[in-house]
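HUMAN: You are asked to prepare a plain-text protein record giving the amino acid sequence and the backbone structure tokens, both parts labelled.

ASSISTANT:
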Amino acid sequence: MTDARMIGITTLQPDEIDQIKPLWEELNRLHEEKSDHFKQHFRQFTFEKRMASFSDCDDYRIFAAKENNNTVGYCIASFKKDIGEIDSIYILPEYRKTGLGEKLMTNAENWLISKNISRIRISVVQGNEEAFGFYEK
């Protein structure tokens, strides 16, 4: 089993965003598959459209989990005015339940707190209710 302590978390620069594209696309496919009402939205929602949407934010960060220079997970956090959001998180299936998700979320939350954000929200896509337990932690 993978030990999350051995996996490094880095902050991606804008020119490194493509490192998470395959993971984001897998998450988008998962959302499309699980959704009862929004399949068409996910089919048309490209990585480029999603990344462009962050231009409306005051600031955002992408935290990437890397093992041996391979990106195995990520978490995107953003804020606008005084409201922060965990916008997206995805971890490859073989790295789940190792503490890596918590490590990514902690980095994102700490960054938001450092920006004096007092309210942080997260949304769960309909059909992905199994993620509730993770977020409740």
Q: What stands out?
A: The beta strands are 8-11, 59-67, 70-80, 83-91, 119-122.
